[in-house]
Amino acid sequence: MTKNTFDLEQQLLSDYDSKLTAEGVSGERLAHRLGILSKIGLTEDQGSRRSGFSQEEREAKNWIVKWMEEAGMQVREDGAGNIIGRLDGKHPDKPVIMSGSHVDTVPNGGHFDGTIGVLSALEVAQSWKETGYAPEKPLEIVAFTDEEGSRFNGGLTGSEAMMGDTDIEAMQTKKDFDGRTFEEVINDVGLSVEGFKSAGRPHSDIESYVEVHIEQGKRLEKEQLPCGIVTGIAGPYWLRLTFKGQAGHAGNTPMTDRQDALVAAGHFIHNISHLPQKINDSAVATVGNIEVKPNGTNVIPGEVIVYVDIRDIYEDTRQQLIDAIIQTAEDISKSWAITLTCETVHNVPPVPIKKKLQDKLEKAMQGKGIRPYYLPSGAGHDAMIVGQHVPSAMIFVRSKDGISHNPAEWSDLSDCVQAVHILKDYIESCQSHQITYQN
To answer: Which residues form a coiled coil (predicted)?
Structure first.
């Protein structure tokens, strides 16, 4: 299939169960909108390239604005470029129920990551317009800016700005893949540093947040379920460990008289692969980046820097894993006469999902005849940032083969529409009482 003949809408509709178009929710409309967005930034591999703060992201947002207005929403854009559609409801002075995600992508990504969260929330608003449902509380739908972070090697930029978590001074030091500064790039799409500074809003304005997202894993596929309930979002903690030994000649230094930093680091990497499952079944640890110095074929490595990505959905068990990994590094370094230094380079707290919110999602799934299934999110999402301050929930949609950030990323339309129905019932159930961190 060539780029010119790519038609995501028809692919989605080819095996769609049309009986799921009900209660104002339209699978056909969802497929049409996914199809339109898929053509913005379409790559030669039939993937998607809509980097944060690009004209492609802006074009996708313009479509979101149009569809929000079609659903009868008041639309505004904040200083960070987040697009916000609002339905006042019967009591516009109450804190809002918020839902959404993002429309930017990685450089050659898929057509569901992020996008399905924004369009699912839009489908709820559109269904209310078609059925005449009037919510008690305001609903806001958000298309967050630059979640993926491929432009400045960061991410979650829009949700951090809305929650008041942006380190604007640090952002101003960053340059993109073309060597352009943060300020230069955002000016191109009509944004400013001053606008970013003013994008934060009182957390008390938001009662709760809920996000639909593709799973990006295989658990739901193995369970043969269309969607699942997220129990928590694993906050990433990055450690930089430096193993220092003694560089030497590879030929003239006996094996019994070496301080080989890479041998010690190799033992460490092997050993930590067994640690997470000893602590918690949702914990993971990954070494994806190592630096070897002096990195010569005939030189014994004198220094190795290892970066470890450590995640879990609970703060206490994540800390247990961090401690175990550091202890392992210390023990191995001592046994190989290697000097070790450890440094934290990134730390985002995990976000456990409140049980009361999980229970609401369970009830919604049972009402639709779907077996409730609980699973953690190992990846970060806008819900991770919002959830630091506001009660937040997530619904995962089944991913084919667990593939994501790839043109082969796929979720069946029938699965997506079932998630929309769950989202709709969940948001409607939130109209009856206030959600707080205490209840």
So the answer is: none
